[in-house]
Amino acid sequence: MTSYESFYAEKMRELQRQLDTVKQTINTNSKVIAFMNSPVGQYLDKRPFISLSLLVFIALSAVPFGMFLTVMVGTAVIACLGVIIIEGND
Q1: How do residues 10-33 score in pLDDT, each as one tens digit?
Q2: According to the UniProt entry, where is the signal peptide (predicted)?
């Protein structure tokens, strides 16, 4: 093995250790344990494809919903400022 291959192999081992630490931290969280012991957690634990589909759906739905809320709040602020400016010129 050349030096760059051993360098990347060591980096991959370090990354694996870090990911294992994060996974262990998540799995020992009391809220995660409580959720996984619930009926919904048990159902999703037995069906990983449904879990992944639900996760992707929620993640991709958050972006348009956030954009909608931003436009809605911006429109309300501009409308209020418009009313204040127009009504203030008496």
Answers
A1: 999 999 999 999 999 998 999 999
A2: none
Can you tell me the distance from the alpha carbon of 3 to that of 13, in angstroms, rounded to the nearest whole number?
15
Helix H or strand E segment including 87 = helix 48-87
| Region for 38 from its dihedrals, namely left if φ exceeds 0, alpha if ψ lies in -120 to 50, beta otherwise | beta
Give the pLDDT confidence of 44-84 residue by residue, as tens digits: 999 999 999 999 999 999 999 999 999 999 999 999 999 99
DSSP result, 8-53? HHHHHHHHHHHHHHHHHHHHT-HHHHHHHHSHHHHHHHH-HHHHHH
